[in-house]
Amino acid sequence: QVQLVVSGGGLVQAGGSLRLSCAVSGRTFSSHGIGWVRQDPGKEREFVATISSWSGTRTYYADSVKGRFTISRDNAKNTVYLQMHSLKPEDTAVYYCAAGGWGENLSAYDDWGQGTQVTVSS
Q1: Is residue 13 a contact partner of residue 119, using CB atoms and an 8 Å limit?
Q2: What's the maximum distance between 2 C-alpha atoms anywhere in the chain?
Q3: Alpha-carbon distance 64 to 78, whole Å?
Q4: Quick one: pLDDT at residue 26?
Q5: Alpha-carbon distance 69 to 48, whole Å?
Q6: Quick check: 17 and 87 in contact, CB under 8 A?
Q7: Given this model, what pLDDT does residue 113 score?
C-alpha cells in the first residue's frame, strides 16, 4: 500500500500562485504514476493533471488548467508537485493526489491522499 500526504494549500488572491506537494511513502515511488484531482463541494471529483512513472516524461492536463498548472516529480524526495499560477476563483476546491494510475480515469488510481483546501478569492 502507498501513503500520500498532501500539503501546500491555502488562501490566495486571483492571479496568484501556490505550489502543492504530495509526499509518497510505501512501495517504490518512482514506479507509480501520480495524478492530481480536485473537488468542489457539491460537485464530482475533477481530474487536474497526471505524470507518468519513473522519469515522469509524460504529463497530461485538464483543459481548464493547461498552461497555468505544472506537474512535476522529484524521485529523490518521493514527492510530486503541482505548481499553480494565474489562479482563478473557479480553481477553488479540495485538491487530492492519487497514485497508481494515469490520465483522466479516476478509478484507475489505487491510493489517495487526504486533500488540501485551495481557496482563490476574487
Answers
A1: no
A2: 41
A3: 27
A4: 79
A5: 9
A6: yes
A7: 93
pLDDT attached to residue 42: 87
> pLDDT below 70 — which residues of the chain?
none
Of 55, 43, 63, 61, which Cα lies nearest the Cα of 102? Answer: 61
Task: Give, as one character, the DSSP assignment of residue 40.
Answer: -
Contacts of 44 (CB under 8 A, 6+ apart): none
DSSP letter for each residue of the chain: --EEEEE--EEEETT--EEEEEEEESS-GGG--EEEEEE-TTS--EEEEEE-STT---EEE-TTTTTTEEEEEETTTTEEEEEE-S--GGG-EEEEEEES--SS-GGG--EE---EEEEEE-
How far apart, in whole angstroms, are the C-alpha atoms of residue 48 and residue 28?
A: 23
